[in-house]
Design brief:
Blueprint lengths: L1 E5 L2 E7 L3 H9 L1 H8 L5 E14 L2 E13 L9 E4 L2 E11 L2 E11 L4 E6 L2 E3 L6 H13 L8 E3 H6 L16 E10 L2 H7 L3 E2 L8 E7 L3 H4 L3 H15 L23
Parallel strand pairs: 2-3, 6-11
Antiparallel strand pairs: 1-2, 3-4, 4-5, 6-7, 6-9, 7-8, 7-13, 10-11, 12-13
């Protein structure tokens, strides 16, 4: 058994995994961020680490159970924790020939039993806090589109400021938060058609991604995942309340004419 400092208190930690994995877990950013982010109203008396998943040499997920109380009450509160940290999601708003489209990626999602589950592009954060840079990187990895991070609008920051880190998909047991961004761009029909069916993803990370283009007005019916629906809701409500300006997007430049054949 070891101890970890939580709110200035040495909390005993037991573990179902090796001593090496236990130490990696309590030193990881996901565990430290959880422990350091607790409001003072919480009291943690013990933590038991049940499993640790590594992504290479980096801790990805930590599953644990805490003996926890709130407001000095004597009855324990639910303490099951799945710690995985933050992520980013990107809502595409593509303007093409007077119509509006969005982009989804379809990939295997084993927990829900779907081989081509549709969702907006997303990815985990690496703890650096460079949210826009990570979002831009995810766009390129999942769609092949290279963009400038300055083109991204942070919808969650516009909505919540620094009160919350982002949108929380499942707070009953998971610490995950998502920074949701809006990316607006004009494309030619050829560019749009070139994206449809594009295969991407990092195979070494187990990613098998197919890009699809859908009418923007149909996105809510096509992609049933929380980040897609939340990004749509934030975009619409922020715009309706005047907190998000959606100026006209300049048309995509026409492709250069083919050079004349030499005589």
């Amino acid at each position: 058994m070891t101890t970890v400092q939580i709110a200035g208190k040495a909390v005993p930690v037991t573990s179902d995994v090796s001593a090496e994995l236990t130490q990696l877990a309590i030193n990881s950013s996901v565990f430290r961020d959880w422990a350091n982010g607790l409001e003072p109203r919480f009291r943690i008396d013990a933590v038991r680490i049940q499993s640790v998943d590594l992504f290479g040499s980096r801790v990805g997920f930590v599953k644990c159970v805490a003996t926890a109380f709130v407001d000095n009450e004597e009855h324990k509160i639910p303490g099951i924790l799945f710690l995985r940290g933050g992520a980013v999601g990107i809502l595409f708003e593509i303007h093409c020939e007077g119509a509006l489209y969005s982009l989804v990626v379809r990939q295997p999602r084993l927990p829900v039993g779907r081989a081509l589950f549709p969702e907006i592009p997303a990815g985990m954060l690496d703890g650096s806090g460079a949210f826009k840079g990570m979002a831009a990187k995810e766009i390129e990895e999942e769609t092949g589109i290279t963009i400038n991070a300055a083109q991204l609008v942070d919808l969650t920051e516009l909505a919540y400021g620094d009160q919350y880190k982002g949108m929380y998909p499942s707070v009953g047991a998971c610490d995950e938060f998502m920074k949701l961004f809006l990316f607006r761009e004009a494309m030619t029909r050829a560019q749009l058609d070139g994206l449809r069916g594009h295969l991407s993803g990092l195979r070494e990370h187990g990613e098998y991604i197919t890009v699809d283009i859908v009418p923007f007005e149909d996105l809510w019916r096509v992609a049933p995942d929380a980040k897609t629906l939340s990004a749509l809701c934030l975009r619409d409500r922020l715009h309706a309340t005047g907190r998000l300006c959606l100026p006209a997007v300049a048309p995509a430049p026409a492709p250069a004419p083919a050079p004349a054949p030499a005589h």
